[in-house]
Amino acid sequence: MIRADALVKRYGEVTALAGLSFTVPAGTVFGLLGPNGAGKSTTIKILTTLSAADGGTATVAGHDVRREPDAVRRAIGVVTQGSGCDPVATGRENLLLAGRVHGLRGRAVRSRVDELLARFGLTGAANRLVRTYSGGMRRKLDVAMGLVHRPSVLFLDEPTTGLDPQARADMWAEIARLAGQERLTVLLTTHYLEEADQLAGELLIVDRGQAVASGTPERLKSELRGDAVVVELAPDADLELAGKAIGAIPGTREVTLAGRTIRSRVDHGASAVPSVLAALERESVAVAAVTVARPALDDVYLRHTGRSFAAAEEVPA
Amino acid sequence: MATLVPHSAFLTGRLLRFTARQPAFVAINLVQPMIWLLLFGQLFKRVVEIPGFATGSYLEFLTPGVVVMTVLFSSGWAGMAFIDDMERGVMDRMLSSPVNRMALMVASVANQGVTVVVQAAIVVVVALLLGASFGGGVLGVLVMLLASILLTAAFASLSNGMALIVRTSESLIGFSTMLTLPLSFLSSAMIAREVAPEWIRTVSAYNPVDWTVVASREALSADPDWGAVLLRLGGLAAVALAAIWLATRAFRAYQRSM
């Protein structure tokens, strides 16, 4: 349904996309996961015909984004980052305009708008100005506007950024429902690992404009054999020394150091803890805490990029 | 192209509702031209005593000038709505939908046109209350409105096009101010052409703002020279269409920079 082939985009000296390729099969929820500045929004802008790539090609719903932008625009629904609804219009007016721009007229557009208002729980607020809406309501309206013309592909650019936990959970349920009931292809970007894990059937991890890993969340996680052992050292402990000591224990892999935290991977986490503690005891390294974790997407990210997700997020965009 | 008319209508509806929901905005827009009329009308009252003025009443002379300055000040701000839309993500949503690009321009112009017609009508009513009388009658006023709408189309499009290129309200305000006052003073809006220096007379002959003033003033007079009016209306229409077309092209520049 979506095919991106070697997309390149530069902004002056900065390379936002460095040859990104991926394919999204019809009817899936496809997640683009990466830290801020990874190139997710740039990819969405190119695929939704807002921006032109400097290199590479892309087709959406069978149409080339550069040669047939109007055909692409008719086939897609777009929910941009932030919000795309007009705050000085009512929810109903926003939806009616979105429908009419897509060629819906008369009773057809009015009944479609009523249907969407009801479905997103906005019927009571339909005639209120959007600027009186909460963040969660606004986001629901955004998604409803993206669906008004029954697109075959829906783009959701960071749909839950800035939402409170309850609104985020609602939005997740809504997105899951879309994929399940409407045979819609959804391309979702997010920098929340849990979100990608929850919603995406298929996942592409991007970093610095390039694909670093892809597959189902389960497959990506199962590629990581074993558990993560995370050791947090006391404030004055010798990090290097501790890292070497842990690395020397038979069966530990992928030892990484960050701040006062040492991560390593072992086949069986719980039984590795005593030997880790013993090794650190021998080197007289003071330990503040030890945790064992089942593989999560964060570990996938760490393994493929060499940085933890949180550390990548701290890089100024 | 088939979408131009319906899309323009839907988008104009959106902007008019927006304008109607900002009562303060509407009030400011209405008060401003009245202040000009009263202030300048008083300040320069005796200016008609200078030889070269065809009329004995400065108020009658000034009325079309104030209408035109109102057009410039209102429509120079048209691009602010575009900048708001860019900041709110509305523009990106529009541009990733099959919305007709030229309809975005036409809707902005239509919205500004409605505002300008209301403002101009108020200026005329206030002038009449102050004792002005226009020999051209209702027809003269209608011609003035038409000329004002054409100038609005040109100026609002220019403002929108600039908004798409500069993308910040500060730059747009700077641009609009830089253009509005010189264009007003390089015309016969406030002072008879015969009184102005030679070089201003030359420049104003090519100034669409002056065409609007001259066409309006002529149409409002008791015995209009319709040839001169039509010539200037034609020129204004050409400039308006060219500006709408050019400003629509600016969407490409905006998208290229994304």
From TrEMBL, chain A:
Task: Give the UniProt keywords, A-Z.
Answer: ATP-binding, Nucleotide-binding, Transport
Q: Which Gene3D superfamilies does the record associate with it?
A: P-loop containing nucleotide triphosphate hydrolases
User: Main localisation, per the record?
Assistant: membrane
Q: Where in the cell is it found?
A: Cell membrane
What positions does the domain ABC transporter occupy? Answer: 2-233
Q: Report the InterPro entries cross-referenced here.
A: AAA+_ATPase, ABC_transporter-like_ATP-bd, ABC_transporter-like_CS, DrrA, DrrA1/2-like_C, P-loop_NTPase
A UniProt-annotated Pfam family: DrrA1-3_C
What SMART domains does UniProt report for this protein, alphabetically? AAA
GO MF annotation, one: ATP binding
The topology of this chain with respect to the membrane is: Peripheral membrane protein
> What SUPFAM superfamilies does the record point to?
P-loop containing nucleoside triphosphate hydrolases (SSF52540)
Give the family per the record: Belongs to the ABC transporter superfamily. Drug exporter-1 (DrugE1) (TC 3.A.1.105) family.
Name the record gives this protein: ATP-binding cassette domain-containing protein
What species does this protein belong to? Answer: Actinophytocola gossypii
TrEMBL record, chain B:
Sorted UniProt keywords: Antibiotic resistance, Cell membrane, Membrane, Transmembrane, Transmembrane helix, Transport
Return the Pfam families for the record: ABC2_membrane (PF01061)
Q: What positions does the domain ABC transmembrane type-2 occupy? A: 24-254
Question: Which membrane topology term applies here?
Answer: Multi-pass membrane protein
The subcellular localization recorded is: Cell membrane; Membrane
PROSITE patterns in the record = ABC_TM2
Instruction: Please give the superkingdom of this protein's source.
Output: Bacteria
Where does the chain cross the membrane?
24-41, 61-83, 104-132, 138-159, 171-192, 226-248
Q: Which InterPro entries match?
A: ABC2_TM, ABC2_TM_bact-type, ABC_2_transport, Nod_factor_ABC_transporter
The family line of this record is: Belongs to the ABC-2 integral membrane protein family.
Q: Under what name is this protein listed?
A: Transport permease protein
Could you tell me which species this protein originates from?
Actinophytocola gossypii
